[in-house]
């Protein structure tokens, strides 16, 4: 375990009797509410000083209400310092009215429009989507990229068109660890890391491997490559709870990551677990 407090840049919370999450129907272990008290119980062995909530793919009409709900929870747990909310980026200029309402909500730091669930790998390249991304900068918002390894080449093309927007790549680009797909993912990670406005979230890796039989040796090359490419100034720790419970416990994930980066200096570890997250998500404001 780190000997200092960490910032978790990827916390999910959901309430199934309040919001609609169609994707949960296909994942029975997750198809129930996961609330703050559950997270406290699961993460109590880890010293967490700040947390960033990331939207949980409610139906689009509930995106603003989800963000408002989390903002109210920040009054209960002051460690919730940031919210990455849903926004319909593909509406292009039409997203402005949505963002006008969104930024009225406390703690909003960025937005996410899930891409990994889409069959259309070029969805992020349509002109209206790129237009919507450009507009985010006007609101001082970042964009979390959540796309699969086989979509990353288009992610490179997307980022290339938005040099003024700050991007955070979720889950190191969702590699297919279970099927040992490495080379194409490796090359695209290298390409994405060439853009100084892209950071990488070290999160969600164990759930891309076999949930029951993954090993540290199996996931280590992926994490090490991501860190090697982005460097210690552009990586940030994320817990991806409770999705991570499909494959591990919260403390175990921290222990595994700490083992993989055991050769890093204290300065590098603090960047990974704390400082980069605070800077990227502007948590001190």
Describe the structure.
With 285 residues, the protein is of the alpha/beta class. It has one domain (6-280): Metal-dependent hydrolases (TIM Barrel). It is 35% helix and 14% strand. The protein is built from nine helices and eight strands. It has helices spanning 36-43, 63-73, 96-102, 127-138, 152-160, 183-193, 216-230, 250-260, 266-280, and strands at residues 6-11, 48-54, 80-86, 108-112, 142-145, 167-169, 198-202, 235-237. It has an eight-stranded parallel sheet with strand order 1-2-3-4-5-6-7-8. The longest helix is centred in the C-terminal third of the chain and has 15 residues, at 216-230. The relative contact order is 0.15.
Please, how many helices? 9
How is the biggest beta sheet arranged? 8 strands, parallel
Instruction: Name the structural class.
Output: alpha/beta
Number of strands: 8
Write the layout of secondary structure elements.
Elements: E1 6-11, H1 36-43, E2 48-54, H2 63-73, E3 80-86, H3 96-102, E4 108-112, H4 127-138, E5 142-145, H5 152-160, E6 167-169, H6 183-193, E7 198-202, H7 216-230, E8 235-237, H8 250-260, H9 266-280
Helix pairs in contact: 5-6, 6-7
State the main characteristics:
alpha/beta, TIM Barrel
Outline:
This protein is of the alpha/beta class and 285 residues long.
């Amino acid at each position: 375990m780190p000997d200092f407090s960490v910032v978790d840049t990827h916390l999910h919370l959901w309430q199934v009797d309040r919001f609609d999450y169609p994707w949960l129907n296909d994942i029975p272990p997750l198809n129930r509410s996961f609330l703050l008290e559950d997270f406290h119980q699961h993460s109590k062995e880890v010293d967490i000083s700040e947390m960033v909530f990331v939207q949980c793919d409610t139906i689009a009409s509930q995106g603003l209400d989800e963000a408002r709900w989390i903002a109210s929870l920040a009054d209960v747990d002051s460690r919730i310092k940031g919210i990455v909310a849903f926004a319909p980026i593909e509406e292009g200029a039409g997203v402005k009215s949505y963002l006008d309402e969104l930024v009225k909500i406390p703690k909003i730091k960025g937005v996410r429009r899930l891409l990994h669930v889409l069959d259309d790998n070029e969805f992020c390249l349509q002109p209206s989507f790129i237009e919507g991304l450009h507009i985010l900068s006007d609101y001082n918002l970042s964009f979390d990229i959540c796309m699969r390894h086989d979509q990353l080449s288009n992610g490179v093309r997307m980022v290339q068109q938005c040099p003024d927007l700050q991007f955070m790549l979720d889950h190191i680009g969702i590699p297919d660890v279970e099927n040992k797909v490495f080379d194409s993912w490796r090359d695209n990670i290298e390409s994405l890391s060439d853009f100084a406005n892209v950071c990488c979230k070290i999160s969600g890796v164990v759930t891309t491997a076999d949930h029951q039989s993954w090993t540290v040796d199996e996931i280590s090359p992926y994490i090490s490559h991501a860190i090697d490419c982005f460097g210690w100034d552009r990586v940030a720790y994320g817990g991806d709870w409770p999705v991570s419970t499909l494959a591990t416990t919260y403390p175990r994930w921290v222990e595994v990551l700490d083992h993989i980066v055991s050769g890093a200096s204290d300065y590098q570890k603090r960047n990974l677990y704390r400082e980069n997250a605070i800077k990227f998500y502007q948590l001190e404001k």
